Amino acid sequence: MISIARKLAPVLVASMFVVACSKNDDDAVPAPSITVTELGSDNSKIAFAGSDLHVDATLLAPGGIAGVAVEIHPEGASGWEFDSTYTEGFTGLKNATFHKHIDIPAEAAAGAYHVHFTITDQRGQKAEFEAELEIKVDPTLPTISGFAVATEDGGKELHVEGNIVAQNKIASVTVEVHGSAWEKEFVYNGAAMVGKTTYSLHEHIDISAAPAGHYHVHLKVTDQAGKEKEFEEHFDK
Question: Does the record carry Transmembrane helix as a key word (predicted)?
């Protein structure tokens, strides 16, 4: 019996080693990653005080997303700061598109800023992405007052309205509607608005194909100098 046990011992040890290795392989989940594809309009890495910062990023997390943190701070001693962690709509997903518009207050100081993105998975693994950002002040940017949205006709239409002022004359207006399961862009550049410095926007948008849920509405005014500014609203369907 002792002889048999001695012969079996190496086999048992080898089996335990294989099981342990297999368990370690199962636990070895790749770290998450984040790739920022757009920071500022057309990835310009420029934003304007009193407007918003457009951010698009690709998220990958085989271990499941726990959250995405965005931090913005000035390169100098003083300036505007931003720090927020996003979990809603991301938690548990293994891949996702991060599409956000971050409001920059009108009193934000112009200058150089640093942006940090951190994705954390449900195992505590992290990945970071860093970028430079310039905040500018431009009083000639288009503005809109009274911007409001509301669903009509049982949720089949979206009413969008607002009063636009563009010192450099209006070139176009773009309305983007997006939710977790549906998004669509609508461009308006009719003769009634193009070339005008003021315009009362009043549109009814067909959203009958959009499923029930929470939606963001981004209205972008582009002027004939190529400058643009975005405004945001929300609605539930």
Answer: no
Token representation of residue 88:
């809603």
Cα torsion through 41, 46, 50, 52, rounded to 10:
40
Best CA proximity match to 50, nearest among 105, 101, 102, 110:
105
Q: What is the predicted pLDDT for the residue at 27?
A: 67
Answer whether residue 54 is part of any domain. Answer: yes
Minimum mean pLDDT among 6-15, 168-177, 226-235: which range?
6-15
Residue 50 binned pLDDT confidence (cut-offs 50, 70, 90):
confident
Q: How far is CA 29 from the centre of its chain?
A: 26
Q: The domain that contains 214 carries what CATH number?
A: 2.60.40.10
**CA 29 – CA 20 distance, rounded (Å):** 16
Quote the pLDDT of residue 12. Answer: 46
The pTM (predicted TM-score) of the whole model is 0.69
Domain that holds residue 119: 33-136
In a domain, 23, yes or no: no
User: What is the b/e burial string over 114-151, where b = at least 16 CB atoms within 10 angstroms of the residue's CB?
Assistant: ebebbbbbeeebebebebebebeeeeebbbbeebebeb
pLDDT tens digit sequence for 126-144: 999 999 999 999 989 999 9
d(CA 116, CA 70): 6
